[in-house]
Structures are given as C-alpha cells and as structure tokens.
Write a structure and sequence with these properties.
The chain has 79 residues and is an all-alpha fold. It has one domain (3-62). Helix content is 51%, strand content 0%. The protein has helices at 3-11, 29-38, 43-57, 65-70. The longest helix is centred in the middle third of the chain and has 15 residues, at 43-57.
Amino acid sequence: MNPEDLELLVTRQMPFGKYKGRFIADLPSNYLVWFSREGFPKGEIGRLLALMLEIDHNGLGPLLDPLRRRHPPAGGYRG
C-alpha cells in the first residue's frame, strides 16, 4: 500500500455493479466481504477493494476522514 492508494479510496468510484458510482471508501462491508469470497477483480479496482476491506475489517475507517474532507463529493455518492 502507498499513500496514493488511500487518496484513491475516497476519490475513485466503483465502475460497475450494484454500487456503481459510489466511492470505494463508501462501499458497504458486506459487499467488500462478498468480493473477498468470490475474488477481487484484476487491476487497480481489485487492489483498492482489497485495501478497503482491510481498513474496514480492522476498524481503521477514521483514517480516511482527513482525506474525505480534502476531497468533498462532486456528484459521487458519499454515504
């Protein structure tokens, strides 16, 4: 993981599926767990989903709060 990945979690939107358009950092835990069981997609999105699962699972979500404040939503979902 690198610091840029944390930035991407709050700015990159899910490109497909039930939560298309939602920021990766805002995806529900059960959706991340589903991916971990079924297999993460290849590439950047899969890497970010796996990272968000680790952050969520370890209760580290508040680490993203300062990044969220720096990147307020511009049309994307912020749940």
